[in-house]
Amino acid sequence: MKTTVVTFVLFLSSVFGLRHTNVTVETIKTVETAKTAVTVGTIREIEAREAQVRDQGENVRFQASLLILQGSYKFDEVSENVKALQNVLGNVRVDGHYGGITRKRHIEALKANGLPVDNVPDAKYRSSELGKYNISDNLEERCPMWEDKFREYGLEPVEVFSYIAYRESRCNPKAVNAKFDANGNVTWTLNKDGSVDRGLVQINSTWRTVTSEVCNAPKGKLEVLYDVDCNLKVAKYLMDNTDSKLGNWRVWKK
Question: What is the CA radius of gyration of the chain?
């Protein structure tokens, strides 16, 4: 320790032109203070540099997010680009599907950053697109009271799911296509295979495992499907994870 201090004193002498190099207690204290000042100054320089690098990184990420916000998307598009957009938005489900909710949040984010909204796609499905679905043209055969929920869960086209809910349950979230005895056993069901459909969009009992996982419910407790949120969560799972998608409700035209 003394050797280091003496060396540092000699260094200061050469730098600052000190004439005396006798090491005293006061000299050592002065040297220690100088060393501390040098150390603190160095740490502050490092911290300032680190802050500058962080700021630069944040700026790069911010600029990248602006480019993503200004990207080109199609309504009902499912892609990795949409996932990137949803990650930037931060307040939507990251499922890669550009539906009504993602569109709404996209517009909000663009406006919040002072950007034009010209790149936001039209939310309406063209009549030619709706024409591929086997749904009624009668607008009374819809469930408008549940359409905001369909949008919330990204169940698109909303017009189609509005019709599905009417056809399947007459808009009744407690609907079931079976009868049960006092012990809860099925005594009659509309389905020839003995399965049972429940809830707003009539989720089939064969999806018991999915229902348990998606709705965080005990396996086999299918009464949870009478809850609208659970019912639509399972519907969204089927849309995202099965090849049939809307074919699960047989609304494709043959």
Answer: 33
